[in-house]
Amino acid sequence: MSEPRYRVLAIASHPVQYMAPLLGRMALHPQLDLSVAYCTLRGAQPSHDPDFNTTVKWDIPLLEGYPWQEILNRGSGTESFWGLYNPGLSNLIRSSKFDAILCYLSYLCASFWISYFAARRSGAAFIFGTDASSMISRTGGTWKIRLKSLYWPMLFSLADQVIVPSSASRDLLVSLSVPSERITLTPYSVDNDWWVAESQKIDREAVRASWGATPRTSVILFCAKLQAWKRPLDLLRAFVQAKLSDVLLVYAGEGAQRQELEEESKTLGVREQVRFLGFMNQSQLPAVYTAADVMILPSEYEPFGVVVNEASCCGCPVVASDRVGAAKDLIAPVNPGLIYSCGDIQALSTLLNELCRGNGRLRELGRAAKDRMASWSPQETVAGTVAALGAALRRRQR
To answer: Which residues have CB under 8 Å from 116's CB, separation 6+?
Structure first.
């Protein structure tokens, strides 16, 4: 008996460098007749990113390998409910006879609800999810936790199937009484093959030499936006406490805290050991990860943290706080000791000391991190998506 073929519309706010290769694989899957609708083309076109504090246009193809269309946004384009208001989605969904809608939009925007009600009127299955790994909000406030605990069970009951990118997200929803059979893991993956291939092209010693590192130097990397919730200052202070010699600390990224970091590194007497690379586009990142010995992600708010995937594919092990959603799936299997309590600068300092005693252990951890990615790839993501579609459509047919 042949496998069923699903006519699917995926809706996203804008093209994303992580999603584009995945959509290309989905478009080639024999069970998927995929169309993609974008609410804006931000990312594929130059636009100002306030978090990076710069104009961003990703330098890899974002609109190739799958059928797509842009739906006119009549909203403000801001981070608000009316920022994405794409009324054309309703006509597209109702007129095209899709079997299912894969909605990657936030429920906090108008276009999510336009899509939901159009799917219900057309009889299409509606699939959405969350990448949240805890109830903690980036902007804080215990009232938000209380509110979410009340309305999230009702919200996710609207989905014919809920998709989550990590086991931490799945555990969170189960704790909120969302039935486990209504949840499907679709791993948050990157194009592993591309990252591995690009990493293999890198002249590691030449990149390290450009930073002033010798073959014996240990290089500690921070690769993220220089924003308060990423806690880049925690790493700088732990680095100072560790009193490391022949070690460099490299910041790859841009953001509001850059000036503070530069001034603090001078005040703390380590400016000569710290490098600031600024914003790094996608094609530049394999060199950064490959040249580093270990990456640190100290975030207090990090629903997943796809930089963990990228670094691991390049053989760079990752230390992360326990607020990083990827920690349970991608770091604990390598070594649970690489996860520390968020904000515990002394614990991070101790870890840095242990890891930088010799590069032999770091190389071993790097190989283990790369091996872990073999079973956390687009192949598993697409398989999970197809499984979610099947479960949703079976539920609709009951």
So the answer is: 103, 126, 158
